[in-house]
Sequence to fold (241 residues):
Amino acid sequence: MNRRRFIANSAAIASLAALPSQGRAALAAISATQAPLPYAPEALEPHIDAATMKLHHGKHHATYVTKLNEALVAAKLPADNIVALLGNLSQAPADQQSALRNHGGGHVNHTWFWNWMAPAGTGPAEPQGPLAEALQANFGSLADFKKAFGDAATKRFGSGWAWLIVKGDGKLAITTTANQDNPLMKGVVPDAELGTPILGLDVWEHAYYLKYQNKRPDYIGAWWNVVNWKSVADGLAASKA
Ligand SMILES: [Fe+2]
Fold:
């Protein structure tokens, strides 16, 4: 590597370390390597079917990881913290920003998503403690939260995600993003959508079409049975740290 390129790379890497403050404490680094599913593909049955999980993790998510790594090589950026990279996309080389946004977002969003689910019955069926209190304070009740989140997820046009986020002021909010964008993407999504994600739902058709066909509301309704409330509570606690 020549000296000029080394200096340019060092500056890019240093700038990517400057994560927006609302994400720094809450969000662990995710490298550009795909982890195995934290449960068997059939473990979320009957709510999410094994065939969907195998395709979703083994093909869709895996392809995002492959293409993300190609973009990182082309951009000469490190592969150790894609969460930080997504908060600073504008600092990445212009010709790779689109690929990093789509495939980096796809990798991080899905990595979170697998961990925001768990086999039904393995954790609390409903939010407990500070998470329950925060949902009540921000949305009125758990039922009101689920209704608002489900409505937002249903109305997200085309492919995208619905999110529960912790805003910069500590309040919870529901938002949605298109494609593989997420609420960390400062300068990409509107400021009103920025925050620390503590729960997200994939509403791309690849997440539900095999079992639910066009009935996205049925998928959303079933998904609540496999939400990992412990993981959501941990995310909320980390966002306050
Ligand atoms: Fe997906």
